[in-house]
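agent> fetching stored inputs for the flavin-adenine dinucleotide docking request
agent> found them:
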Amino acid sequence: MTGKTTGALRVILGDQLSPDVTALADLEPRHDTVLMMEVQEENTYVRHHKQKLVLVLSAMRHFATSLRERGVAVDYVELDATENVGDLSGEIERAVARHRPERIVVTEPGEWRVKALIEGWAGLTRTPVEVRADERFFASRSRFAEWARGRRGWRMEHFYREMRREHAILMEGDSPAGGEWNYDAANRKRLPTRAMPPARRRFAPDAVTREVMALVERRFSHHFGDLAEFGWPVTRADALLALDDFITHGLDVFGDYQDAMRAGAPFLYHSLLSPALNLGLLSPREVCGAAEAAWRSGAAPLNAVEGFVRQILGWREYVRGVYWTLMPGYAECNALEATRPLPEFYWTGETAMRCLKQVIGDTARHAYSHHIQRLMVTGNFALLAGVAPRDIERWYLAVYADAYEWVEMPNTLGMAVFADGGQMASKPYAASGAYIDRMSDFCKGCAYDVKHKTGPDACPFNYLYWAFLIRHKDRLSGNPRLAMPYRTLARWPRERELAVVAEAQAFLDTLDVKTNAGASIP
Ligand SMILES: Cc1cc2nc3c(=O)[nH]c(=O)nc-3n(C[C@H](O)[C@H](O)[C@H](O)COP(=O)(O)OP(=O)(O)OC[C@H]3O[C@@H](n4cnc5c(N)ncnc54)[C@H](O)[C@@H]3O)c2cc1C
Ligand code: SF4
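agent> prediction call returned; pasting C-alpha coordinates
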Protein backbone atom coordinates (compact mmCIF):
# COMPACT_ATOMS: atom_id res chain seq x y z
CA MET A 1 0.00 0.00 0.00
CA THR A 2 3.03 2.28 0.18
CA GLY A 3 2.74 5.33 -2.07
CA LYS A 4 -1.07 5.69 -1.90
CA THR A 5 -2.36 8.81 -0.16
CA THR A 6 -5.51 8.32 1.86
CA GLY A 7 -8.07 11.04 2.48
CA ALA A 8 -9.08 10.00 5.95
CA LEU A 9 -7.85 7.06 7.97
CA ARG A 10 -10.97 5.89 9.77
CA VAL A 11 -10.14 3.87 12.83
CA ILE A 12 -12.65 1.28 14.03
CA LEU A 13 -11.95 -0.10 17.50
CA GLY A 14 -12.97 -3.60 18.56
CA ASP A 15 -16.25 -2.56 20.22
CA GLN A 16 -17.31 -0.16 17.47
CA LEU A 17 -18.72 -2.72 15.06
CA SER A 18 -21.80 -0.75 14.02
CA PRO A 19 -22.46 0.24 10.41
CA ASP A 20 -23.65 3.66 11.61
CA VAL A 21 -20.74 4.37 13.97
CA THR A 22 -19.78 8.06 13.65
CA ALA A 23 -16.23 7.31 12.47
CA LEU A 24 -17.78 5.95 9.26
CA ALA A 25 -20.23 8.81 8.65
CA ASP A 26 -19.34 10.73 5.43
CA LEU A 27 -16.89 7.97 4.47
CA GLU A 28 -15.54 8.48 0.96
CA PRO A 29 -14.87 4.97 -0.38
CA ARG A 30 -12.67 6.28 -3.22
CA HIS A 31 -10.29 8.10 -0.90
CA ASP A 32 -10.64 6.82 2.63
CA THR A 33 -9.28 3.72 4.31
CA VAL A 34 -10.73 1.99 7.35
CA LEU A 35 -8.11 0.74 9.79
CA MET A 36 -8.81 -2.16 12.15
CA MET A 37 -6.16 -3.57 14.45
CA GLU A 38 -5.83 -6.75 16.50
CA VAL A 39 -3.11 -6.04 19.05
CA GLN A 40 -1.55 -8.06 21.82
CA GLU A 41 -1.91 -5.34 24.44
CA GLU A 42 -5.72 -5.13 24.11
CA ASN A 43 -5.96 -8.91 24.38
CA THR A 44 -3.84 -9.18 27.50
CA TYR A 45 -4.21 -6.09 29.74
CA VAL A 46 -6.38 -8.38 31.83
CA ARG A 47 -6.51 -12.15 31.42
CA HIS A 48 -9.70 -12.01 29.31
CA HIS A 49 -11.87 -15.11 29.10
CA LYS A 50 -11.04 -17.04 25.94
CA GLN A 51 -14.65 -16.70 24.72
CA LYS A 52 -14.44 -12.93 25.03
CA LEU A 53 -11.29 -12.87 22.90
CA VAL A 54 -12.85 -15.11 20.26
CA LEU A 55 -16.03 -13.05 20.24
CA VAL A 56 -14.27 -9.73 19.72
CA LEU A 57 -11.72 -10.95 17.17
CA SER A 58 -14.22 -12.95 15.14
CA ALA A 59 -16.78 -10.12 15.17
CA MET A 60 -14.05 -7.69 14.03
CA ARG A 61 -13.09 -9.96 11.14
CA HIS A 62 -16.71 -10.36 10.07
CA PHE A 63 -17.26 -6.61 10.30
CA ALA A 64 -14.22 -5.96 8.09
CA THR A 65 -15.63 -8.39 5.53
CA SER A 66 -19.00 -6.62 5.55
CA LEU A 67 -17.27 -3.28 4.89
CA ARG A 68 -15.23 -4.72 2.03
CA GLU A 69 -18.43 -6.12 0.54
CA ARG A 70 -19.70 -2.52 0.47
CA GLY A 71 -16.62 -1.47 -1.49
CA VAL A 72 -14.76 0.07 1.44
CA ALA A 73 -10.96 -0.27 1.60
CA VAL A 74 -10.08 -1.93 4.89
CA ASP A 75 -6.55 -2.20 6.20
CA TYR A 76 -6.90 -5.03 8.71
CA VAL A 77 -3.90 -5.87 10.89
CA GLU A 78 -4.16 -9.42 12.16
CA LEU A 79 -2.72 -10.43 15.51
CA ASP A 80 -0.29 -12.84 13.88
CA ALA A 81 0.95 -10.40 11.23
CA THR A 82 4.74 -10.44 11.46
CA GLU A 83 5.13 -6.64 11.55
CA ASN A 84 2.37 -6.16 14.16
CA VAL A 85 3.96 -4.17 16.99
CA GLY A 86 1.31 -5.19 19.52
CA ASP A 87 -0.24 -1.92 20.70
CA LEU A 88 -2.75 0.54 19.28
CA SER A 89 -0.52 3.61 19.14
CA GLY A 90 2.34 1.71 17.50
CA GLU A 91 -0.06 0.36 14.88
CA ILE A 92 -1.49 3.83 14.23
CA GLU A 93 2.02 5.11 13.62
CA ARG A 94 2.70 2.31 11.14
CA ALA A 95 -0.64 2.85 9.39
CA VAL A 96 0.00 6.58 8.98
CA ALA A 97 3.35 5.78 7.39
CA ARG A 98 1.59 3.37 4.99
CA HIS A 99 -1.31 5.61 4.00
CA ARG A 100 -0.15 9.17 4.68
CA PRO A 101 -3.71 10.29 5.46
CA GLU A 102 -4.84 13.91 5.62
CA ARG A 103 -6.51 13.15 8.96
CA ILE A 104 -7.41 10.37 11.34
CA VAL A 105 -11.08 9.97 12.26
CA VAL A 106 -12.13 7.93 15.27
CA THR A 107 -15.22 7.57 17.44
CA GLU A 108 -14.63 8.21 21.15
CA PRO A 109 -13.59 4.96 22.83
CA GLY A 110 -15.35 3.15 25.68
CA GLU A 111 -12.44 3.25 28.02
CA TRP A 112 -10.48 6.01 29.74
CA ARG A 113 -7.17 4.23 29.06
CA VAL A 114 -7.80 4.23 25.28
CA LYS A 115 -8.99 7.86 25.36
CA ALA A 116 -5.60 8.79 26.80
CA LEU A 117 -3.85 6.84 24.01
CA ILE A 118 -5.90 8.59 21.31
CA GLU A 119 -5.01 11.97 22.75
CA GLY A 120 -1.39 11.16 21.94
CA TRP A 121 -1.97 10.19 18.29
CA ALA A 122 -1.82 13.68 16.73
CA GLY A 123 1.59 14.36 18.29
CA LEU A 124 2.83 10.87 17.51
CA THR A 125 1.88 10.95 13.83
CA ARG A 126 1.82 14.70 13.14
CA THR A 127 -1.61 14.15 11.60
CA PRO A 128 -4.83 15.88 12.70
CA VAL A 129 -7.08 13.57 14.74
CA GLU A 130 -10.84 14.08 14.79
CA VAL A 131 -12.55 12.33 17.71
CA ARG A 132 -16.31 12.04 17.19
CA ALA A 133 -19.01 11.44 19.77
CA ASP A 134 -20.30 7.90 20.14
CA GLU A 135 -23.95 8.30 19.18
CA ARG A 136 -24.88 4.67 19.77
CA PHE A 137 -26.22 5.52 23.23
CA PHE A 138 -29.43 7.27 24.23
CA ALA A 139 -27.57 9.85 26.32
CA SER A 140 -24.35 11.55 25.29
CA ARG A 141 -21.70 12.02 27.95
CA SER A 142 -22.58 15.70 28.16
CA ARG A 143 -26.30 14.90 28.55
CA PHE A 144 -25.53 12.78 31.59
CA ALA A 145 -23.16 15.40 33.00
CA GLU A 146 -25.91 18.02 32.60
CA TRP A 147 -28.37 15.75 34.46
CA ALA A 148 -25.85 15.04 37.23
CA ARG A 149 -24.70 18.64 37.71
CA GLY A 150 -25.80 20.10 41.02
CA ARG A 151 -27.55 16.91 42.21
CA ARG A 152 -26.45 15.74 45.61
CA GLY A 153 -27.33 12.07 45.22
CA TRP A 154 -27.54 10.38 41.82
CA ARG A 155 -30.28 7.80 41.50
CA MET A 156 -30.78 5.71 38.41
CA GLU A 157 -34.58 5.86 38.73
CA HIS A 158 -34.64 9.66 38.33
CA PHE A 159 -32.35 9.56 35.32
CA TYR A 160 -34.38 6.73 33.78
CA ARG A 161 -37.63 8.70 33.97
CA GLU A 162 -36.01 11.59 32.13
CA MET A 163 -34.78 9.17 29.47
CA ARG A 164 -38.26 7.65 29.09
CA ARG A 165 -39.76 11.10 28.50
CA GLU A 166 -36.95 12.34 26.30
CA HIS A 167 -36.99 9.31 24.00
CA ALA A 168 -40.76 8.69 24.21
CA ILE A 169 -40.31 5.05 25.21
CA LEU A 170 -43.22 3.31 26.96
CA MET A 171 -45.06 6.61 27.25
CA GLU A 172 -48.70 7.51 26.78
CA GLY A 173 -48.58 11.23 26.20
CA ASP A 174 -46.78 12.71 29.21
CA SER A 175 -47.49 9.70 31.42
CA PRO A 176 -45.73 6.37 31.74
CA ALA A 177 -47.50 3.50 29.99
CA GLY A 178 -49.96 1.87 32.37
CA GLY A 179 -49.65 4.74 34.87
CA GLU A 180 -46.49 3.56 36.72
CA TRP A 181 -42.83 4.19 35.96
CA ASN A 182 -41.67 0.96 37.55
CA TYR A 183 -43.38 -2.44 37.82
CA ASP A 184 -40.86 -4.18 40.02
CA ALA A 185 -43.53 -4.92 42.61
CA ALA A 186 -44.86 -7.49 40.11
CA ASN A 187 -41.38 -8.85 39.32
CA ARG A 188 -38.61 -10.88 40.93
CA LYS A 189 -40.37 -14.04 41.93
CA ARG A 190 -38.86 -17.34 42.92
CA LEU A 191 -38.65 -19.76 39.99
CA PRO A 192 -41.25 -22.55 40.30
CA THR A 193 -39.74 -26.05 40.16
CA ARG A 194 -41.86 -26.88 37.11
CA ALA A 195 -40.69 -23.83 35.09
CA MET A 196 -38.87 -24.85 31.89
CA PRO A 197 -36.68 -21.97 30.67
CA PRO A 198 -36.23 -21.84 26.88
CA ALA A 199 -33.10 -23.38 25.35
CA ARG A 200 -30.56 -20.73 24.50
CA ARG A 201 -30.13 -20.10 20.79
CA ARG A 202 -26.54 -21.02 20.07
CA PHE A 203 -24.69 -19.80 16.96
CA ALA A 204 -22.36 -22.56 15.83
CA PRO A 205 -18.88 -21.21 15.07
CA ASP A 206 -18.30 -20.68 11.32
CA ALA A 207 -14.93 -21.03 9.56
CA VAL A 208 -13.78 -17.54 10.60
CA THR A 209 -14.67 -18.14 14.24
CA ARG A 210 -13.03 -21.56 14.21
CA GLU A 211 -9.83 -20.03 12.89
CA VAL A 212 -9.91 -17.43 15.67
CA MET A 213 -10.58 -20.16 18.24
CA ALA A 214 -7.41 -21.94 17.14
CA LEU A 215 -5.50 -18.65 17.36
CA VAL A 216 -6.77 -17.96 20.87
CA GLU A 217 -6.00 -21.50 22.08
CA ARG A 218 -2.50 -21.13 20.67
CA ARG A 219 -1.68 -17.62 21.96
CA PHE A 220 -3.79 -17.34 25.11
CA SER A 221 -4.03 -20.88 26.41
CA HIS A 222 -3.31 -19.69 29.97
CA HIS A 223 -6.33 -17.36 30.00
CA PHE A 224 -9.46 -18.13 32.02
CA GLY A 225 -12.40 -20.11 30.63
CA ASP A 226 -13.33 -22.77 28.08
CA LEU A 227 -14.17 -22.43 24.40
CA ALA A 228 -16.18 -25.66 24.01
CA GLU A 229 -19.59 -23.98 24.53
CA PHE A 230 -18.87 -20.89 22.43
CA GLY A 231 -22.12 -19.85 20.76
CA TRP A 232 -22.22 -16.04 20.75
CA PRO A 233 -23.46 -14.20 17.66
CA VAL A 234 -20.50 -12.61 15.87
CA THR A 235 -22.37 -10.82 13.06
CA ARG A 236 -25.17 -8.29 13.07
CA ALA A 237 -27.42 -10.76 11.20
CA ASP A 238 -26.99 -13.37 13.92
CA ALA A 239 -27.37 -10.77 16.67
CA LEU A 240 -30.74 -9.81 15.15
CA LEU A 241 -31.76 -13.49 15.28
CA ALA A 242 -30.72 -13.60 18.94
CA LEU A 243 -32.84 -10.52 19.63
CA ASP A 244 -35.83 -12.06 17.89
CA ASP A 245 -35.34 -15.29 19.82
CA PHE A 246 -35.39 -13.46 23.15
CA ILE A 247 -38.42 -11.34 22.27
CA THR A 248 -40.30 -14.50 21.23
CA HIS A 249 -39.23 -16.91 23.98
CA GLY A 250 -37.89 -14.99 26.98
CA LEU A 251 -39.37 -11.52 27.26
CA ASP A 252 -42.87 -12.36 28.48
CA VAL A 253 -41.60 -13.70 31.83
CA PHE A 254 -38.35 -11.71 31.96
CA GLY A 255 -39.57 -9.58 34.87
CA ASP A 256 -41.09 -12.42 36.87
CA TYR A 257 -37.88 -14.44 37.13
CA GLN A 258 -35.28 -11.72 36.64
CA ASP A 259 -33.67 -12.36 40.04
CA ALA A 260 -34.11 -16.14 40.16
CA MET A 261 -31.22 -18.59 40.02
CA ARG A 262 -31.19 -22.32 39.40
CA ALA A 263 -28.28 -24.75 39.45
CA GLY A 264 -27.50 -25.99 35.94
CA ALA A 265 -29.60 -23.25 34.28
CA PRO A 266 -27.40 -20.15 34.04
CA PHE A 267 -29.47 -18.25 31.46
CA LEU A 268 -33.12 -18.66 32.57
CA TYR A 269 -35.16 -15.93 30.82
CA HIS A 270 -32.37 -13.42 30.35
CA SER A 271 -31.70 -11.97 26.92
CA LEU A 272 -27.95 -12.75 26.61
CA LEU A 273 -27.79 -9.65 24.43
CA SER A 274 -25.13 -7.66 26.33
CA PRO A 275 -22.15 -9.01 24.33
CA ALA A 276 -23.81 -8.01 21.02
CA LEU A 277 -24.98 -4.65 22.41
CA ASN A 278 -21.58 -3.76 23.79
CA LEU A 279 -19.78 -4.66 20.55
CA GLY A 280 -22.23 -2.53 18.56
CA LEU A 281 -23.82 -5.42 16.65
CA LEU A 282 -27.17 -4.30 18.07
CA SER A 283 -28.25 -0.81 19.01
CA PRO A 284 -29.97 -0.13 22.33
CA ARG A 285 -32.66 1.77 20.43
CA GLU A 286 -33.63 -1.21 18.30
CA VAL A 287 -33.58 -3.56 21.30
CA CYS A 288 -35.86 -1.29 23.37
CA GLY A 289 -38.00 -0.70 20.27
CA ALA A 290 -38.46 -4.45 19.74
CA ALA A 291 -39.47 -4.93 23.39
CA GLU A 292 -41.94 -2.05 23.29
CA ALA A 293 -43.45 -3.37 20.05
CA ALA A 294 -43.95 -6.77 21.74
CA TRP A 295 -45.94 -5.06 24.51
CA ARG A 296 -47.99 -2.95 22.09
CA SER A 297 -48.88 -6.06 20.07
CA GLY A 298 -49.92 -7.95 23.20
CA ALA A 299 -47.07 -10.47 22.98
CA ALA A 300 -45.53 -9.50 26.36
CA PRO A 301 -46.92 -7.89 29.52
CA LEU A 302 -45.96 -4.41 30.65
CA ASN A 303 -44.16 -5.51 33.85
CA ALA A 304 -41.77 -7.63 31.76
CA VAL A 305 -41.20 -5.03 29.05
CA GLU A 306 -40.76 -2.11 31.43
CA GLY A 307 -38.35 -4.19 33.56
CA PHE A 308 -36.31 -5.06 30.47
CA VAL A 309 -36.31 -1.54 29.03
CA ARG A 310 -35.20 -0.16 32.41
CA GLN A 311 -32.07 -2.33 32.27
CA ILE A 312 -31.04 -0.78 28.95
CA LEU A 313 -32.49 2.73 28.84
CA GLY A 314 -31.92 3.08 32.59
CA TRP A 315 -29.05 1.08 34.02
CA ARG A 316 -26.87 0.75 30.92
CA GLU A 317 -26.99 4.47 30.15
CA TYR A 318 -26.68 5.43 33.81
CA VAL A 319 -23.52 3.41 34.47
CA ARG A 320 -21.91 4.84 31.34
CA GLY A 321 -22.65 8.33 32.62
CA VAL A 322 -21.23 7.48 36.04
CA TYR A 323 -18.05 6.11 34.45
CA TRP A 324 -17.32 9.09 32.23
CA THR A 325 -18.30 11.67 34.83
CA LEU A 326 -16.17 10.21 37.63
CA MET A 327 -13.14 8.81 35.83
CA PRO A 328 -10.20 8.63 36.22
CA GLY A 329 -10.43 8.90 40.04
CA TYR A 330 -13.32 6.42 40.17
CA ALA A 331 -11.03 3.47 39.41
CA GLU A 332 -9.22 4.01 42.71
CA CYS A 333 -12.20 4.43 45.04
CA ASN A 334 -12.25 2.23 48.15
CA ALA A 335 -14.72 3.73 50.61
CA LEU A 336 -14.82 0.61 52.81
CA GLU A 337 -11.00 0.30 52.84
CA ALA A 338 -11.12 -3.30 51.68
CA THR A 339 -7.73 -4.91 51.13
CA ARG A 340 -8.11 -8.69 50.97
CA PRO A 341 -6.60 -10.23 47.80
CA LEU A 342 -9.08 -12.03 45.56
CA PRO A 343 -9.41 -15.66 46.71
CA GLU A 344 -7.96 -18.10 44.22
CA PHE A 345 -11.28 -19.95 43.94
CA TYR A 346 -12.61 -17.10 41.79
CA TRP A 347 -10.35 -18.55 39.08
CA THR A 348 -10.72 -22.25 39.84
CA GLY A 349 -14.25 -22.63 41.24
CA GLU A 350 -12.77 -24.85 43.94
CA THR A 351 -14.86 -24.06 46.99
CA ALA A 352 -17.38 -25.97 49.06
CA MET A 353 -19.84 -23.06 48.79
CA ARG A 354 -22.16 -24.41 46.14
CA CYS A 355 -23.55 -21.06 45.01
CA LEU A 356 -20.06 -19.73 44.24
CA LYS A 357 -18.88 -23.00 42.72
CA GLN A 358 -21.90 -23.06 40.42
CA VAL A 359 -21.69 -19.43 39.30
CA ILE A 360 -17.92 -19.49 38.78
CA GLY A 361 -18.16 -22.81 36.91
CA ASP A 362 -20.85 -21.36 34.60
CA THR A 363 -18.69 -18.28 34.12
CA ALA A 364 -15.80 -20.47 32.94
CA ARG A 365 -18.11 -22.47 30.61
CA HIS A 366 -20.07 -19.59 29.11
CA ALA A 367 -18.31 -16.27 29.90
CA TYR A 368 -21.74 -15.33 31.24
CA SER A 369 -23.65 -14.87 34.47
CA HIS A 370 -26.86 -12.97 34.82
CA HIS A 371 -27.08 -9.87 36.93
CA ILE A 372 -28.11 -11.45 40.24
CA GLN A 373 -25.45 -14.15 39.98
CA ARG A 374 -22.87 -11.35 39.55
CA LEU A 375 -24.31 -9.02 42.18
CA MET A 376 -25.60 -11.34 44.90
CA VAL A 377 -23.23 -14.31 44.67
CA THR A 378 -19.72 -13.39 43.48
CA GLY A 379 -20.19 -9.67 44.24
CA ASN A 380 -21.84 -10.21 47.61
CA PHE A 381 -19.07 -12.56 48.72
CA ALA A 382 -16.36 -10.07 47.68
CA LEU A 383 -18.19 -7.30 49.55
CA LEU A 384 -18.66 -9.32 52.74
CA ALA A 385 -15.13 -10.72 52.66
CA GLY A 386 -13.62 -7.26 52.11
CA VAL A 387 -11.88 -8.09 48.83
CA ALA A 388 -9.85 -5.17 47.45
CA PRO A 389 -12.08 -3.35 44.93
CA ARG A 390 -9.39 -3.26 42.24
CA ASP A 391 -8.88 -7.06 42.46
CA ILE A 392 -12.54 -7.93 42.08
CA GLU A 393 -13.02 -5.23 39.44
CA ARG A 394 -10.24 -6.68 37.27
CA TRP A 395 -11.81 -10.13 37.72
CA TYR A 396 -15.18 -9.01 36.37
CA LEU A 397 -13.45 -7.22 33.50
CA ALA A 398 -11.64 -10.43 32.60
CA VAL A 399 -14.27 -13.13 32.89
CA TYR A 400 -17.43 -11.97 31.07
CA ALA A 401 -17.99 -11.81 27.33
CA ASP A 402 -19.74 -8.46 27.72
CA ALA A 403 -17.11 -6.81 29.95
CA TYR A 404 -15.89 -3.35 28.98
CA GLU A 405 -14.66 -0.95 31.58
CA TRP A 406 -17.35 1.73 31.08
CA VAL A 407 -20.09 -0.71 32.05
CA GLU A 408 -18.24 -3.18 34.24
CA MET A 409 -16.44 -0.76 36.55
CA PRO A 410 -19.44 1.16 37.98
CA ASN A 411 -21.37 -2.09 38.35
CA THR A 412 -18.50 -3.57 40.33
CA LEU A 413 -17.20 -0.63 42.32
CA GLY A 414 -20.52 1.14 42.77
CA MET A 415 -23.05 -1.66 42.96
CA ALA A 416 -21.32 -4.84 44.00
CA VAL A 417 -18.72 -3.69 46.53
CA PHE A 418 -19.89 -0.18 47.47
CA ALA A 419 -16.37 1.14 46.91
CA ASP A 420 -17.72 4.54 45.82
CA GLY A 421 -19.43 4.98 49.19
CA GLY A 422 -22.93 5.32 47.75
CA GLN A 423 -22.49 7.41 44.61
CA MET A 424 -24.27 4.76 42.56
CA ALA A 425 -26.31 2.68 44.98
CA SER A 426 -28.17 3.90 48.04
CA LYS A 427 -26.92 0.98 50.16
CA PRO A 428 -24.47 -1.91 49.88
CA TYR A 429 -26.06 -5.03 48.34
CA ALA A 430 -24.99 -7.13 51.32
CA ALA A 431 -27.05 -10.25 52.03
CA SER A 432 -26.87 -13.36 54.16
CA GLY A 433 -27.43 -16.90 52.85
CA ALA A 434 -31.19 -16.46 53.29
CA TYR A 435 -31.36 -14.28 50.15
CA ILE A 436 -29.52 -16.87 48.03
CA ASP A 437 -31.72 -19.61 49.47
CA ARG A 438 -34.89 -17.67 48.67
CA MET A 439 -33.90 -16.94 45.06
CA SER A 440 -32.21 -20.22 44.10
CA ASP A 441 -31.94 -23.96 44.67
CA PHE A 442 -28.20 -23.75 45.37
CA CYS A 443 -28.42 -24.34 49.11
CA LYS A 444 -30.08 -27.75 48.80
CA GLY A 445 -26.92 -29.52 47.68
CA CYS A 446 -24.42 -27.41 49.61
CA ALA A 447 -21.89 -28.68 52.15
CA TYR A 448 -23.00 -25.81 54.40
CA ASP A 449 -26.38 -25.37 56.04
CA VAL A 450 -28.05 -22.09 55.18
CA LYS A 451 -30.28 -22.29 58.26
CA HIS A 452 -27.28 -22.42 60.60
CA LYS A 453 -25.95 -19.03 61.66
CA THR A 454 -22.86 -20.24 63.51
CA GLY A 455 -20.86 -23.43 63.88
CA PRO A 456 -18.70 -25.48 61.53
CA ASP A 457 -21.48 -26.24 59.03
CA ALA A 458 -23.09 -22.77 59.11
CA CYS A 459 -23.38 -21.00 55.75
CA PRO A 460 -20.41 -18.59 55.59
CA PHE A 461 -22.61 -15.87 54.07
CA ASN A 462 -24.52 -15.76 57.40
CA TYR A 463 -21.70 -14.86 59.76
CA LEU A 464 -19.84 -12.87 57.08
CA TYR A 465 -22.96 -10.74 56.65
CA TRP A 466 -23.23 -9.82 60.33
CA ALA A 467 -19.47 -9.35 60.67
CA PHE A 468 -19.64 -6.96 57.70
CA LEU A 469 -22.36 -4.87 59.36
CA ILE A 470 -20.44 -4.83 62.65
CA ARG A 471 -17.18 -3.87 60.89
CA HIS A 472 -18.81 -0.91 59.13
CA LYS A 473 -21.19 0.18 61.87
CA ASP A 474 -19.76 3.69 62.06
CA ARG A 475 -20.20 4.28 58.38
CA LEU A 476 -23.43 2.40 57.61
CA SER A 477 -25.65 2.37 60.68
CA GLY A 478 -27.07 5.81 59.80
CA ASN A 479 -28.26 4.58 56.38
CA PRO A 480 -32.08 4.45 56.53
CA ARG A 481 -32.12 1.47 54.16
CA LEU A 482 -30.07 -0.53 56.68
CA ALA A 483 -32.12 0.51 59.69
CA MET A 484 -33.67 -2.92 60.15
CA PRO A 485 -30.51 -5.04 60.44
CA TYR A 486 -28.85 -2.42 62.62
CA ARG A 487 -31.90 -2.45 64.94
CA THR A 488 -31.44 -6.22 65.21
CA LEU A 489 -27.74 -5.80 65.93
CA ALA A 490 -28.48 -3.25 68.64
CA ARG A 491 -30.26 -6.00 70.57
CA TRP A 492 -27.24 -8.33 70.46
CA PRO A 493 -25.06 -8.62 73.56
CA ARG A 494 -21.44 -7.58 72.98
CA GLU A 495 -20.21 -11.20 73.40
CA ARG A 496 -22.40 -12.31 70.50
CA GLU A 497 -20.95 -9.62 68.25
CA LEU A 498 -17.42 -10.62 69.21
CA ALA A 499 -18.17 -14.31 68.58
CA VAL A 500 -19.53 -13.63 65.08
CA VAL A 501 -16.57 -11.41 64.19
CA ALA A 502 -14.17 -14.11 65.41
CA GLU A 503 -15.97 -16.84 63.44
CA ALA A 504 -15.92 -14.74 60.27
CA GLN A 505 -12.24 -13.98 60.74
CA ALA A 506 -11.39 -17.65 61.30
CA PHE A 507 -13.20 -18.56 58.07
CA LEU A 508 -11.46 -15.80 56.10
CA ASP A 509 -8.05 -16.78 57.48
CA THR A 510 -8.54 -20.34 56.34
CA LEU A 511 -9.66 -19.13 52.97
CA ASP A 512 -6.58 -17.01 52.48
CA VAL A 513 -4.17 -19.73 53.55
CA LYS A 514 -5.82 -22.46 51.51
CA THR A 515 -6.84 -20.67 48.41
CA ASN A 516 -5.03 -17.47 47.86
CA ALA A 517 -1.85 -18.62 46.19
CA GLY A 518 -1.48 -17.22 42.71
CA ALA A 519 -4.50 -14.93 42.95
CA SER A 520 -2.71 -12.00 41.40
CA ILE A 521 -4.36 -10.75 38.27
CA PRO A 522 -2.14 -9.46 35.53
C1 LIG B 1 -20.47 -6.83 39.33
C2 LIG B 1 -21.17 -6.66 38.03
C3 LIG B 1 -20.45 -6.54 36.87
C4 LIG B 1 -21.11 -6.34 35.65
N1 LIG B 1 -20.37 -6.22 34.52
C5 LIG B 1 -20.98 -5.98 33.34
C6 LIG B 1 -20.22 -5.85 32.14
O1 LIG B 1 -19.01 -5.92 32.14
N2 LIG B 1 -20.89 -5.63 30.98
C7 LIG B 1 -22.25 -5.52 30.94
O2 LIG B 1 -22.80 -5.32 29.85
N3 LIG B 1 -22.98 -5.64 32.05
C8 LIG B 1 -22.39 -5.87 33.25
N4 LIG B 1 -23.15 -6.00 34.38
C9 LIG B 1 -24.60 -5.78 34.30
C10 LIG B 1 -25.44 -7.04 34.02
O3 LIG B 1 -25.12 -8.03 34.95
C11 LIG B 1 -25.27 -7.55 32.59
O4 LIG B 1 -25.50 -6.50 31.69
C12 LIG B 1 -26.26 -8.66 32.28
O5 LIG B 1 -26.11 -9.70 33.20
C13 LIG B 1 -26.03 -9.15 30.87
O6 LIG B 1 -26.81 -10.28 30.60
P1 LIG B 1 -28.10 -10.21 29.66
O7 LIG B 1 -27.74 -9.59 28.36
O8 LIG B 1 -28.70 -11.56 29.65
O9 LIG B 1 -28.97 -9.17 30.46
P2 LIG B 1 -30.54 -9.04 30.68
O10 LIG B 1 -30.85 -9.40 32.08
O11 LIG B 1 -31.29 -9.70 29.62
O12 LIG B 1 -30.73 -7.44 30.57
C14 LIG B 1 -30.90 -6.79 29.31
C15 LIG B 1 -29.79 -5.81 29.05
O13 LIG B 1 -29.82 -4.76 29.99
C16 LIG B 1 -28.51 -4.25 30.17
N5 LIG B 1 -28.22 -4.27 31.61
C17 LIG B 1 -28.84 -4.98 32.56
N6 LIG B 1 -28.37 -4.66 33.78
C18 LIG B 1 -27.40 -3.76 33.58
C19 LIG B 1 -26.52 -3.06 34.45
N7 LIG B 1 -26.55 -3.21 35.78
N8 LIG B 1 -25.64 -2.23 33.90
C20 LIG B 1 -25.59 -2.04 32.57
N9 LIG B 1 -26.39 -2.67 31.70
C21 LIG B 1 -27.30 -3.51 32.20
C22 LIG B 1 -27.56 -5.15 29.41
O14 LIG B 1 -27.20 -4.50 28.22
C23 LIG B 1 -28.40 -6.38 29.12
O15 LIG B 1 -28.04 -7.02 27.92
C24 LIG B 1 -22.52 -6.23 35.61
C25 LIG B 1 -23.24 -6.36 36.80
C26 LIG B 1 -22.58 -6.56 38.00
C27 LIG B 1 -23.38 -6.67 39.25
S1 SF4 C 1 -25.66 -22.64 52.05
FE1 SF4 C 1 -24.60 -20.69 51.88
S2 SF4 C 1 -22.72 -21.19 50.77
FE2 SF4 C 1 -24.10 -22.91 50.48
S3 SF4 C 1 -25.20 -22.47 48.56
FE3 SF4 C 1 -26.44 -21.64 50.23
S4 SF4 C 1 -25.80 -19.50 50.39
FE4 SF4 C 1 -24.22 -20.56 49.22
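agent> quick read of the result: Confidence is low (pLDDT under 50) at residues 513-522.
agent> awaiting further instructions
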